[in-house]
Each structure stands twice: as structure tokens, then as C-alpha cells.
């Protein structure tokens, strides 16, 4: 029996799940399918072990410009409001303090200047001097033997803020709500997409096992796998991919009470070191991430030949991509950062080298406090533009205008999942001639945008 759907979403991460719910709640589309290669949703990048469990709304991400922060803040408010609407407090969303700290006179001046600019964007954003940080996060100030660290330290942030998020549980809630809204929706697990083919006026999505489903529109939200799937169909051939994996360390829970982020180097497209109370494993705080380029599209996948992803090999084995990577390594800050993070992964030496950086957040940290978080962290695809010969920061979309679109959403893709879902829903409903109730979407999730 032929299985037909209005829309097929490829990828059961938080972005794909958010789109499934958005289409179910705010459109008149009747049959939507979500296909996922794993046994459940959110098993890869959206898994609780794979990310920093943070709603990145721009308040403490020091590499965000004010313009970007305004956009991300609106996107972040949508998932925060969704969580409140579904009573997910202390289940999927968590309240704690969060701050970005500057250490030393140069960084302190930067934080002070940034705070003045950003306090207009974030009502309630508070500037913390060293004494206040000692009160809120005493271990950020205390050195060994109970002395205060000698450097000046300031911060900008919130004493209480709903900023922790278990994106795995959020993904599952999206699916539960979507299926309850429309029983004709279907979720296919262990459905690894082998190919997508045009079939008359629709698309056939075919698994590696030969299972077939058909859709009038296909939206690919497959993380690192979106680009190789697009290129297998002849789309996005002007792009490449630099997979960067992050690792974390655990420290005793009482050392940090909330989220503490450090100043980002603007030359680096990677997250700065930060500490976060783990919302999934209670009694643990994570420090990280490290950042290591690796020839894999999935960090902990073991089926790749000798650890190398064949999809990546086919996609990136060309002189354009190699040239971009070479140019990146000629930048001193990037080169030193990459080599340092390679050392972090080495046995014995790596933990000791990481300790030096971690003490920027917790000066009294001892080597025995650090425990490598085995199995944590995941690959983030950094997209490369082969034509412009440069790294592309942020999200990238391949729109074909033929009823199939491919999304690549590195951080803060999880934070922006509902914002991106709305964009995708607009494209899908316009293509299919369906109705999208945008006003209802904003009433539920972002009423301030209705009046702005």
C-alpha cells in the first residue's frame, strides 16, 4: 500500500520536531511524516548529552552583535513561551543564574562596554562587580586556601533566568503534541534515508532497507547529513563541510550554581569555554566545550570505516575545500586554538592542559575535580562556501523551489527551532497552497511581535 503525505520531514532532532508541531498546530495540512534514523527522536545533536543545554538568547554570548542578539532573543522567547504553555518548568526548562564574565582589565572593560549596549535589549540585565559575583558564584572568585583571585572580575547577566533547556525532552514533547493534534501524522523510527527521488508530482523518500514513503514536500532537517544528502541529488555542490566536535568535563556540582560563560575570541567560530549545571545528570556541572575538527559527521558513530565518514569523504575531497581549510589554518588564533584542542584530547596531558583553561572560571579547580565526560558532545557542521572560499557562520538553507529544502542549523539552531519552523512552514504552505495561521502562532509564542 502506497503511503502518501503532504509533508515529509527528514530528521528527528529538535528542529524537525518543532516543524512537525508547527505544521500540525497552525496549518490545515492533514498528513505529515517525520522520519528518523535512530530508535527515538533527539538521539544525536539534540540529545541531552550532545549540547550545553542552554537557551542561547544572546544576553551572554559575547560574539553576538546587538543586531544578531535582537533576532536571537525573539527566537529564544518562542521556545521559552512554548515550554511555559506546556507546563515544562523544571522538566525541560530550568531557572538559574547566568552571566558572562570578564577576567583581567581588558576583558572587564569589554564586558562593561557590552553591558551598556545590551541592557537596552534585555530588560533586567544586571552588571556584577567582583563582590557581587563572589556572592552569586563564590567559586568563580575563590582561589585555593580561601583567598580571592587577584585579577579584577566583572560579569553581565541575570541572577534568575529561565535559560537551561533539555532539548531532548523538548523534542519529545513537540512530537507528542503533534501526534495528539492529528492522528494521521506518522513518525518512522530506524528509517535511514538512502535516497530521495522525484516521482511525478511528488517525492519518494526511500530508506536503505527499501521502504518507501511519498510526500508533496520534503524538508530535510538532518543536521550534519543534510548537505551530503543534498549533494547526492545535485544540490549545494558549491558548499563543503568542516565538522567540529566538542568534548566536556564534569566537575562537582557545588562548584557552580548557574551558567558562567567567558569572553569569546571574535576570530574563532567556536564556542568559548563555559560552565553549566547539567540538567540531565543531577549533581554534575559540565565545563567545555573543547573543539576538535574530525573527519566524521557523527561523533560517536562507530560504523564509519576506520572512523572516517564516507559521506564527508565524498563531499569534501576536493581542492576548493582543502584550500579553505588551509587558509583557516594560516590565521594564527585559529591555528593555535585547533592545536591546543588537539592536545586536550590526548591521554594524561590533555586533562592537565584543560585544567589551565578551566581555572579561568574556577581558579581553585584541582586536577582530581575533572572527570572526562565520556560519550558527551557531538559534531557541529561548519559550512564552507567553495565559491567564496570562506567559512560560513550561522545557519544555511538550500532552497530548490521544487518542493524540497535542506537545512543546516549549527548553534544556536536548537534555540531558534520554532523561529526556523515558522520560516519553513511559510515556504511549505506557500508551495502547497495550504493555509498557515501566522497570527495564531504569534499570539501563542511571541505576542510582542504582533504589536511591534
Characteristics of this structure?
single chain; 452 residues; alpha+beta; 8-stranded mixed sheet; 20 strands; 24% strand; globular
Structural description of this entry:
- With 452 residues, this protein is of the alpha+beta class.
- It is 33% helix and 24% strand.
- It is built from 14 helices and 20 strands.
- The strands form 3 sheets. Strands 1, 2, 6, 7, 8, 9, 19 and 20 form an 8-stranded mixed beta sheet that branches.
- Helix 1 runs parallel beside helix 6.
- The longest helix has 20 residues.
- The termini are far apart.
- About 1% of the residues have low confidence.
Strand content: 15-25%
Shape: globular
User: What structural class do you assign from the helix and strand content?
Assistant: alpha+beta
Radius of gyration: 22 Å
Distinct helical segment count: 14
Biggest sheet character:
8 strands, mixed
* Proportion in helices: 25-40%
Low-pLDDT residue intervals, each spanning 5 or more residues: 303-308
In short:
With 452 residues, the chain is α+β, with helices and mostly antiparallel strands. The protein contains 14 helices and 20 strands.
Describe the secondary-structure layout.
Layout: E1 4-10, H1 14-26, E2 32-35, H2 66-85, E3 93-103, H3 105-118, E4 126-128, H4 130-136, H5 138-141, E5 153-165, H6 167-181, E6 186-188, E7 193-199, E8 202-207, E9 212-220, H7 226-232, E10 239-245, E11 249-252, E12 259-262, E13 274-277, E14 284-288, E15 292-293, H8 310-316, H9 319-330, H10 332-344, H11 349-358, E16 371-372, E17 379-385, E18 390-392, E19 396-399, E20 404-408, H12 417-432, H13 438-445, H14 448-451
Parallel strand pairs: 1-2, 1-9, 2-6, 3-12, 9-20
Antiparallel strand pairs: 3-5, 4-5, 7-8, 8-9, 10-15, 10-17, 11-14, 11-16, 12-13, 13-14, 17-18, 19-20
Helix pairs in contact: 1-6, 1-12, 2-12, 10-11
Amino acid at each position: 500500500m502506497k503511503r502518501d503525505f503532504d509533508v515529509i520531514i527528514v530528521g528527528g532532532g529538535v528542529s524537525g520536531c518543532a516543524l512537525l508541531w508547527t505544521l500540525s498546530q497552525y496549518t490545515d495540512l492533514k498528513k505529515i511524516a517525520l522520519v528518523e534514523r535512530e530508535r527515538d527522536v533527539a538521539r544525536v545533536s539534540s540529545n541531552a548529552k550532545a549540547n550545553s543545554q542552554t537557551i542561547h538568547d544572546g544576553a551572554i554570548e559575547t560574539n553576538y552583535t546587538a543586531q544578531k542578539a535582537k533576532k536571537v532573543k525573539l527566537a529564544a522567547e518562542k521556545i521559552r513561551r512554548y515550554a511555559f504553555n506546556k507546563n515544562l518548568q523544571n522538566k525541560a526548562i530550568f531557572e538559574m543564574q547566568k552571566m558572562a564574565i570578564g577576567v583581567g582589565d581588558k576583558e572587564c572593560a569589554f564586558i562593561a562596554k557590552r553591558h551598556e549596549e545590551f541592557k537596552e535589549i534585555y530588560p533586567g540585565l544586571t552588571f556584577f562587580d567582583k563582590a557581587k559575583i563572589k556572592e552569586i558564584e563564590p567559586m568563580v572568585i575563590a582561589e585555593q586556601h580561601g583567598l580571592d583571585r587577584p585579577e579584577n572580575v566583572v560579569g553581565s547577566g541575570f541572577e534568575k533566568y529561565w535559560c537551561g533547556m533539555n532539548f531532548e525532552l523538548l523534542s519529545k514533547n513537540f512530537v507528542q503534541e503533534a501526534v495528539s493534534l492529528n492522528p494521521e501524522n506518522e513518525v518512522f523510527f530506524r528509517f535511514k534515508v538512502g535516497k530521495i527521488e522525484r516521482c511525478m508530482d511528488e517525492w519518494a523518500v526511500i530508506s536503505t532497507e527499501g521502504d518507501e514513503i511519498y510526500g508533496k514536500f520534503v524538508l530535510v532537517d538532518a543536521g550534519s547529513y543534510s548537505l551530503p544528502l543534498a549533494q547526492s541529488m545535485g544540490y549545494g555542490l558549491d558548499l563543503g563541510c568542516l565538522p567540529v566536535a566538542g568534548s566536556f568535563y564534569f566537575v562537582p556540582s557545588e562548584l557552580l550554581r548557574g551558567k558562567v560563560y567567558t569572553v569569546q575570541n571574535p576570530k574563532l567560530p567556536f564556542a568559548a569555554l563555559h560552565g553549566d549545571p547539567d540538567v540531565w545528570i543531577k549533581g554534575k556541572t559540565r565545563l567545555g566545550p573543547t573543539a576538535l575538527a574530525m573527519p566524521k559527521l557523527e561523533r560517536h558513530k562507530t560504523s564509519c570505516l576506520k572512523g572516517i565518514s564516507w559521506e564527508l569523504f565524498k563531499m569534501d575531497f576536493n581542492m576548493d575545500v582543502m584550500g579553505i581549510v588551509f587558509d583557516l589554518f594560516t590565521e594564527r588564533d585559529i591555528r593555535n586554538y585547533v592545536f591546543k584542542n588537539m592536545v586536550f584530547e590526548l591521554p594524561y596531558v590533555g586533562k592537565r592542559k584543560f585544567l589551565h583553561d578551566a581555572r579561568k572560571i574556577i581558579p581553585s579547580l584541582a586536577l582530581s575535580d575533572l572527570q572526562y565526560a565520556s560519550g558527551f558532545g557531538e559534531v557541529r557542521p561548519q559550512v564552507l562556501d567553495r565559491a567564496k572560499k570562506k567559512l560560513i557562520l550561522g545557519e544555511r538553507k538550500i532552497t530548490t523551489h521544487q518542493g524540497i529544502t535542506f537545512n543546516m542549523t549549527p548553534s544556536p539552531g536548537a534555540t531558534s527551532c520554532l523561529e526556523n519552523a515558522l520560516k519553513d512552514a511559510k515556504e511549505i504552505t506557500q508551495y502547497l497552497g495550504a493555509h498557515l495561521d501566522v497570527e495564531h502562532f504569534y499570539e501563542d509564542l511571541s505576542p510582542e511581535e504582533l504589536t511591534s
